[in-house]
Amino acid sequence: MGLAKEFPIEKMDGFRIGNAQKEEAGTGVTVVLFDKDKGARAGVDVSGGGPASRETPLASPLTADNPVNAIVLSGGSAYGLAASDGVMHWLEEHGFGFDTGYARVPLVCQSCIYDLGYKRADIRPDAAMGYAACEDALQHNKALSGSIGAGIGATVGKIYGIERSSKSGLGVCALEVGDLRVAAIVVVNALGDICNPENGEKLAGLKNEAGTGFADSREALYTISKRATLFNSNTTIGVVITNGEFTKGEMNKLAAMTRNAYARCIRPVGTMADGDTIYAASVGTVQADINTTGVLMAEAMEQAIMRAVTSVSDAPVFE
């Protein structure tokens, strides 16, 4: 990583991370809680054609510049948006939110992956799981890569269905250059294959028919003449956080620059079958160059994407 040095993500100020999951159902929630007094200035980039999201316009430069209190990543497809209800309740109980004069209204963004085909489709993240993820953030603040939280039901390489896919999960990485720090958290549930951008090595993705190695999702895509329903079962969702101070418009640009990591690691990416989304959040006051920050964010996201697949055991999808 050259001049960019890795550090423990828990050592970065301004936010805490929590997870909750139901292993028997193969679904879960990951929450990023920002400091009560400051929140985070957020931007967003949506490059996939099928996102499942909540309050994403809060991160648009066209809306009021109010700090976001939490960003939620979850499984459950659109059903999983219920997790934010629990996050809202937790935040209200702990005094977070925009003061309207009558009540504090927590500002929460959320995106979901489709994991209903992994184990059980009838159990999805709910308010109780969102609340539990907040409690985990408060008590533990452990940022772990692997089959945990929103990544517990993630898979990749699903162009021929989940039977030939590879297991994926949640990936995290934090990098610093001088005083500038960034962190990346991502759930990789892509239609495509995952590769190491440095050498092109395929790390996970579509299996060949014998299950002894990998096939190529791009080549498979070229043979498909019409849209299949399985195309709706993918999404890579992530959050990048910096201690650099930027405007809301600049945070949207930084989210877009981070998307380069998706393009370098996921093949194919950003299709109409994916709901690919990246939130970018500023939690600090370090004066930093936007180009430097965007490149560093993309590098951290690359590492997080690779860890999402290398930190899990590729066990059979069905049990």
Automatic annotation (TrEMBL):
Molecular-function annotations in GO: aminopeptidase activity
Identification of the protein by name: P1 family peptidase
Similarity field: Belongs to the peptidase S58 family.
